[in-house]
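Quick review question:
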C-alpha cells in the first residue's frame, strides 16, 4: 500500500525473489548464521511483498509485522491484526520512510496552497478527501514540522539522507520544506484507515 500510494511500486509480474532493505543484523538470526541478505538494487526493492525472499528461519520483519502466514502450513484464511508494532514499522523501517519521502514529493508537485497539497496527499492514501478536522490537524502538523526542521537542520539531513559538501553547511530551504511534508506523509501513511483492511 505504501509503495502504491507513493508511486514507487514496481508493478512487474513474476520473476525471481527480491531483497528489500532489511534492518541490521536480522539475517544473522537465521539458522547457524549461514545466510547473507544483499539488498536488491533499483526497482527490485519496490516490488510487492509476495516477491520478497522468504527465509523460514529468519523471515523479513515487515512480513511478520503485517501478519504474513506461516510458510510451513497451508493458509485458508489470513488473519489480520492492528498492533503497535505495525505502527512502529510504518514509522521507522527504511522501505516505509522511502515511501513517505516519495509520497511527499508526489503530493507537493501540484501547484497551489498547503490545503490543496494536503487534500492530494490524503486522497492518494485513503481515496477520499480529508474532512475539516483532519485537514486542520494535518495543517497544524505541517506548520509544527516546518518550525522543527528549521531549528534542527541535522534532522533534515538524517531524514532525507543528504550528503553536504564542504561549502554547504546547512540543508537547502527546499530540503527543509520536503522534510516537513515527509513528517506529514508519515502520519497519513500510519492512519488506521490506511493500514487496516476493514
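Suggested answer, residue by residue:
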Amino acid at each position: 500500500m505504501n509503495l502504491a500510494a507513493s508511486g514507487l511500486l514496481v508493478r512487474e509480474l513474476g520473476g525471481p525473489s527480491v531483497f528489500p532493505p532489511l534492518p541490521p543484523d536480522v539475517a544473522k538470526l537465521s539458522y547457524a548464521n549461514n545466510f547473507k541478505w544483499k539488498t536488491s538494487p533499483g526497482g527490485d526493492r519496490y516490488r510487492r511483498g509476495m516477491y520478497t525472499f522468504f527465509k523460514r528461519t529468519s523471515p523479513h520483519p515487515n512480513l511478520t509485522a503485517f501478519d504474513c502466514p506461516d510458510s510451513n502450513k497451508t493458509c485458508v484464511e489470513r488473519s489480520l491484526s492492528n498492533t503497535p508494532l505495525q505502527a512502529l514499522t510504518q514509522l521507522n523501517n527504511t522501505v516505509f520512510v522511502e515511501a513517505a519521502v516519495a509520497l511527499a514529493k508526489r503530493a507537493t508537485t501540484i501547484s497551489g496552497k498547503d490545503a490543496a497539497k494536503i487534500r492530494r496527499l490524503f486522497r492518494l492514501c485513503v481515496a477520499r478527501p480529508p474532512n475539516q478536522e483532519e485537514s486542520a490537524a494535518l495543517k497544524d502538523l505541517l506548520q509544527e514540522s516546518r518550525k522543527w526542521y528549521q531549528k534542527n537542520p541535522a534532522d533534515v539531513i538524517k531524514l532525507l539522507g543528504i550528503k553536504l559538501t564542504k561549502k554547504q553547511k546547512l540543508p537547502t530551504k527546499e530540503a527543509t520544506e520536503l522534510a516537513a511534508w515527509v513528517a506529514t506523509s508519515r502520519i497519513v501513511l500510519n492512519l488506521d484507515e490506511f493500514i487496516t483492511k476493514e
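Why it works: The radius of gyration is 18 Å. Residues 86-195 form one domain.
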